[in-house]
Amino acid sequence: MQGAMYNIFIPLEMGDVIQGQKYTTQYEILDIQHTYSIKEKNVVDVSLCLKNVVTGVESKVPYDFDTWKIIKENK
Length: 75
What we know:
The protein has 75 residues and is an all-beta fold. It is built from no helices and 5 strands.
């Protein structure tokens, strides 16, 4: 099996509370998922698993769905 090495930087961490620039809803980041293509040798998809802090509803959205700002950092 061929090993693959790659770099990806996302300025968010699990546990951060974020909000999209276009929306007022705040979300807690449960997980950050990415898909790497060995054939193309790059990251082809980055998604955020989010939980609405008010309703508790979980969803998965593409990272580039919106411009995110951090409301509260996980320390």
